[in-house]
Amino acid sequence: MDRDVEKRRVSIITQIDPHSFKQLPDGLQLSGTDGENKEHDASGHRRGSRKLTTTLNHLALFKDDDIIPSNSHATFFSPYVTPGPGERAQSEKKKANLGVMLGVYLPTIQHILGVTMFIRLFWVVGIAGVPHTMILLFLCCSCTLLTSISLSAVATNGIVESGGSYFMISRNLGAEFGSAVGILFYLANTVATSMYLVGGVEVMLLYIFPNLTIGGEEVHGDTSVWGMMSHNYRIYGTLFLLLEVLICAMGVRFVQLLAPISLACVILSILACFAGGVEKAISHNGLHVCMLNQQLLPTKIFLPEHAPLNDVCKYCIKSEGLSDDFCQNETETLFCSHFAAGNLKCINAFPGFNTTILASNMLPMYMKAGESMPEVKADVGLEVYQDVDTTFFVLLAIYFPAVTGIFTGTNMSGDLKDPQKSIPFGTICATLSTSFIYYALAILFGASIPGPVLRDKYGKSLASSLVVASLSWPSPWVVIIGSFLSTFGAALQCLCSAPRLLQSIAKDDVIPMLRPFARVTSRNEPFLGLLFTAFIAELAILLGAVDAIAEVLDFFFLMCYASVNLICALHSLMKAPNWRPRFRYYHWSLSFLGAFLCFFIMFSSRWQYALISIFLTMTIYKYVEWKGAKKEWGDGIRGLALTTAQVSLLNVEDKDPHPKNWRPQLLIMVNGHMSKDIIDMRSLSLLRLASQLKAGRGLAMVVALINGDPGKKEDKKKANDIKIGLQKDIDETRLKGFAKTLIYFKDQVPGCISALFQSVGIGGLKPNTVLMNFPKTQGKHQFSEKDLFAEQLLKGSNSEYCILIAKGITDFPSNDEKLRGNVDIWWMAEDGGILMLIAFLLSQNKIWKGCTLRVLLIANSMKGNTEVMQKQFEKFVYLLRVDAKVYIVDQKKPSDSSENLPLNTDFNSTFDDKSTQKSATNSKEGYNNVAFTKDKDEIQIDLGSPYDSNDSENEETKCDINNTSNITIDDNLGCSHKIREAMMLNNIICETSNDSQLVLLSLPKIPKNKDQIIDSYITYLNILTMKLPRVLLIGGSGKEVVAITS
């Protein structure tokens, strides 16, 4: 095949002439679809032209030439989901072209009408009564009918390829949920095989060949978990499973030969039941049973071994032998007195259809295990009793598997001539037909058979005969053989489809451990998958009872049905553009109701199993997500998340929040010198610090600035590599945020950063705090870093961001450390309490939780009033609800070493190369004096910039701290005063906080001139914070306030 043809994305549906909109003949292709692309130049590059195309799926107006050749005039109508290469190859194989009847309706009927209908429906009617049975059937049938409607909507929304229901679910739910639900559906088919086989064994051992029972017929009632009858079910179920594996190994064609025979027997059995109800009402020749008051007696205690069942009434008398059976144990006086006082009678067990019997079966008779009547304990050897606890929801769980099988049509989608027409019509008709049959049979049983006989689950009062078979006409064997063949046929269907479903999952390659099951034999049979399916089915057979297996089976099917309903409902509510089902009877409310019914049945019957099934689904989901499955499938869950995010963003007003609701939304600026293979410790440590502030529950956006050309491929690849590395670092530090890279030209730095700060975020969800590293003052990138830092600081201040600068970032703790000591907050200006808020957020993290917060204020003890100041500030901190201690630090006279420090010292050489710093902005008004006392003689600390705002505009007063060789201590320039002040404050801070784990300082006022920041301000901050291992410089924007009110 031509290389260009392989590159193109080809629609597999019928091609349409774009001018006439008529179907093109098979094999005819429009111009431009032959794969010959002549629009490339000699260098092999495309000429860059784009052609107008339309696709039903993506509504793409323009596509590149390597997708659609430039001379193409064809219009491709893509399906709802784009099949992968495997599906396209499969679709090219010859199909069976089955219609509605043979392809969907009859297979679905056969799958639904299983053994449960024959061996449990009459018992459900007897226990629950006719009204409750109607409600039970309504819940079950409504669940499957609503799911069938949702299934029809999906089938008419696009092509359903081979893979059937799994293909449909996975392409709508996405790889993760699709795989999870696909595995559950596979397990449902596998466990259903076990249920049908064990049901067949029950029919065989109880009603066909009872003499084959290991241990004899007397063990028929021993149905406990480790009872002998349960072992019989396990042994014979395993043998039947081996037989069916051999049949399936012969190929699907052989299975299809047996399917019509099985279905014909089932239909004849149903007709025989209705015929029996009418015939018994006319002839009145039904079998009789013996009752003691309202309790049935098993025939084995009074009927001779070889006596015919028609002679029951001859032996239903209070004989001496029967009396001895009830009274032989002197301790069982209750049963003896019950027998002596009771009335022994023989009644017609099958009077035929009449209203009297129907009226007597209206009330429910729920019982516990071992009871013959509600709250009446039975003599298990002499009376018919219940072997399980019965409630409405227990019966619902036991009977629900009888209505499953609605996915049979979609499983055969690869062999259907027109799946979009056959699946909806065939599935819904099959669901309605089987529902009608169940309702009719329930009324027939309730109106033709007395309640005590209906509650005889195993037919002990009828010499171990199947109750339904005894009702039928012309012979009980019609129903017995039909029920047995129905189990065998349904088990074959499940055992044949389950390995193919597993192969479809494995072929998608979203679960690596399933890859071996994608292989098939030369006859296209998944033999390895068949063996694995047989193994799982054997595990289910070991449960040893139809009822126990049915309760497990429910939840696999119900999770699949609930998922299909949720898919359709989400697509409708999210108004997905590609969700356009043509099925006219669909509405999203029906899907939601179907999903609700599924979950209701799950949690009402066995909430433990429901939680396990949901946990299993989520485990598979996370496994596929962990393995990084990336498939271009539809994703309803992602659509829900996007729509929810959209609604939430629209509800967040695009204006400043109330000050007391302010929380840090971080914009984290990192350098662009990293790569996806090289870990930059400064950036990684900054991300760790951001994650330690996550108690604020704010947004985090990480931006890396990269010097380059956005139009060059190598620069774009570098940016992508850095973004991948950033995302890995974000995940490693457990920071909840997003990574972004921004490529800039050297001469576009101011505009680039200004645009970033103004436009970052969306709606009301945008950053309000900049977190950055202090630039390197020495090294390869010191000048570029200073330039970027100055621009970020200046633009952040102008954009009214709160600014956080971390110094010594590589010395900050990792997320695995736990610190002990002090976190010192040096309160030098009234800033709305932003220092307190940041300190509080850090203290909520496990790393800093063991540290003590200390608020430190500088005062002059010579002026007095320090005690009043401390008390007032302690009260303020108390009102802030922050657990911190307040200390007043005495302002001492600067030491000689500080006073006489030569100003021509190179300050940059005194700084630790490993430490990094960060600047932050303050409010527009600059620092205000701390006002917590009425005393006017309070210490006044002016921690402004090395120059005031007016100085920044005047070149004559500009102070260059880096060039201090010509300045002496006697100079009157403003910068010498600021240097002494910074050195003095640094000495005070170092003396008090030398052993502290972290120091938080208010950020001095930021100059308005970029050159002043680079030439002086950075060095000034270094002097202020030198010798301190970890420092956070924090400047508020004036918008954030730590409120003392609620």
From TrEMBL:
The chain crosses the membrane at residues 98-123, 135-160, 181-209, 233-252, 257-278, 392-413, 425-449, 527-549, 555-573, 585-603. The keyword Glycosyltransferase does not apply. Pfam families: AA_permease, SLC12. GO terms for molecular function: potassium:chloride symporter activity. InterPro entries: AA-permease/SLC12A_dom, SLC12_C, SLC12A_fam. It is found in: Membrane. Residues 35-44 have a biased composition (Basic and acidic residues). Its main location: membrane. Residues 104-281, 391-667 form the Amino acid permease/ SLC12A domain. GO terms for cellular component: plasma membrane; synapse. It comes from the Eukaryota. Keywords: Membrane, Transmembrane, Transmembrane helix. It is a multi-pass membrane protein. Residues 897-910 have a biased composition (Polar residues). GO terms for biological process: cell volume homeostasis; chemical synaptic transmission; chloride ion homeostasis; potassium ion homeostasis; potassium ion import across plasma membrane. Residues 24-49, 894-925 are annotated as: Disordered. Residues 803-1044 form the SLC12A transporter C-terminal domain. This is Amino acid permease. It comes from Parastrongyloides trichosuri.
